[in-house]
Amino acid sequence: MSKGVWVLADIVYWFFYIPLTALVVIALVTFPQGMFKSVVQPQVLEAKIAEHRLFNKVSVFDPFLGSRKVVRDDFRQAASLYLSEKPFAYRMSYDGEEYVGNRDFFDVAEPLAPIKYQKFVSERQLMKDGRKVSVKLEQVYPYEYDFE
């Protein structure tokens, strides 16, 4: 083989194969570290569970139809939910009547919801005194919990 072929092989070796090998090794080291160090944040799951719990608490089970479509008379008492140490808040409202769980956190977090906090809003149509009312639930969670 001629000398030019060996020069080309050296160039390909130093400028292609060695950097490609370095990239593969770096990727094999950093990707698993990044995956194992990332913490799973359960806000979406907790918001869905809290939504179902709250809507079940404020509605009455209809034994004839087998559904929960009627708002309870003691709405404010039923809308109260045990709050844990985690920073989250909710507001449940219908027809001008509302209940806010963890009001201090809600008043701070709700205006900053798209930026610093996640906001989950759900609405259901329920019956109250023979008419349909819209029951709205707004929940606010931080993007990441601080587990320290």
Give a written overview of the molecule.
The longest helix is centred in the N-terminal third of the chain and has 35 residues. The strands form two sheets. Strands 4-3-6-5 form a four-stranded antiparallel sheet, sandwiched between helices. The chain has a two-stranded antiparallel sheet with strand order 1-2. The protein is built from four helices and six strands. The protein has 148 residues and is an alpha+beta fold. The chain has two domains: 38 residues; 100 residues, no CATH class.
Q: Which helices and strands occur, and which strands form pairs?
A:
Elements: H1 3-37, H2 43-58, E1 59-62, E2 67-71, H3 75-78, E3 89-94, E4 97-101, H4 103-109, E5 117-128, E6 131-142
Antiparallel strand pairs: 1-2, 3-4, 3-6, 5-6
Provide a brief overview of the structure:
With 148 residues, the protein is α+β, with helices and mostly antiparallel strands. Helix content is 42%, strand content 30%.
User: Based on CA inertia axes, which overall geometry fits?
Assistant: elongated
| Record field, number of beta strands | 6
Report the radius of gyration as a whole number of Å: 28 Å
Structural class: alpha+beta
The tally of structural domains comes to 2
The overall pLDDT average reads 83
Give the distance, in angstroms, between the N- and C-terminal Cα atoms: 65 Å
Q: Describe the largest sheet.
A: 4 strands, antiparallel
Order of strands in the sheet with most strands: 4-3-6-5
Order of helices and strands: HHEEHEEHEE
pLDDT below 50 for ≥5 consecutive residues: which ranges?
none
- In terms of DSSP E residues, the strand content is 25-35%
Number of helices: 4
Percent range of helical residues: 40-55%
